[in-house]
Design a protein that fits this description.
The chain has five helices and ten strands; from the N terminus they run αααββαβαβββββββ. By secondary structure, it is of the alpha/beta class. The strands form two sheets. The protein has a seven-stranded mixed sheet, covered by helices on one side. A three-stranded antiparallel sheet has the order 8-9-10, with no helix packed on it.
């Protein structure tokens, strides 16, 4: 299971995984999380000035997860908070926005100033405008590509295989979307609040 990540892990880069719909639907989610060394279906990890909050978007209404999320965001003194999950709260792609996820997590993200939300599920790249201080990215293009869409929230939307590079500074986050040829095709700078 870890073989595709071997070179990256050997270089000392931590592996952070969020459960997707196929993990949840198959019933193998807990075993996969354990094999990948993840502490559970939702957890937080601090990387310098960034608090990374990983959520289980398969169960957005889980009261334990929502209670934990509220407590975690309340207790955080991190200048930057990034949330990661599988189902996008804001998407103009094939699957579209997951409104249950938006209703469950959105108010907490707004209340506690989450600056960046990362999701997958739609097989494309999308970046939203800042909505209540939060930028939403869909980065799900490592699988079979699907046509990318756009709506009133969309700044950039492309059906392209890519990865994200996030650079953290004290006064800004710089997020770059990089294609398979190593070229940056989208970039956004998020300034400190």
């Amino acid at each position: 299971m870890l073989e595709p990540f071997r070179e990256t892990l050997t270089a000392g880069v931590p592996l952070i995984a969020a459960l997707g719909n196929h993990d949840s639907d198959s019933g193998h989610g807990p075993a996969q999380l354990q094999a990948l060394g993840q502490p559970g279906p939702w957890f937080a990890r601090r990387f310098g000035p960034v608090l990374l909050v990983v959520l289980d978007s398969n169960r957005p209404d889980d009261p334990d997860q929502l209670r934990w999320l509220g407590q975690t965001l309340t207790a955080s003194d991190s200048p930057w908070t990034v949330a990661a999950m599988h189902h996008p709260m804001r998407s103009a792609g094939y699957h579209g926005s997951d409104l249950d996820v938006r209703r469950a997590f959105g108010p907490l993200f707004k209340r506690y100033g989450v600056q960046l939300v990362l999701a997958g599920h739609d097989h494309d790249y999308q970046r939203s405008r800042s909505i209540d201080g939060t930028t939403y990215l869909v980065s799900g293009a490592a699988a079979k590509l699907r046509p990318a869409g756009s709506n009133e929230d969309t700044v950039v939307s492309q059906s392209i295989r890519h990865f994200l590079d996030v650079a953290v500074f004290t006064d800004r986050l710089v997020v770059q979307a990089v294609n398979q040829q190593g070229r940056v095709f989208d970039s956004v700078v998020l300034s400190a609040p």
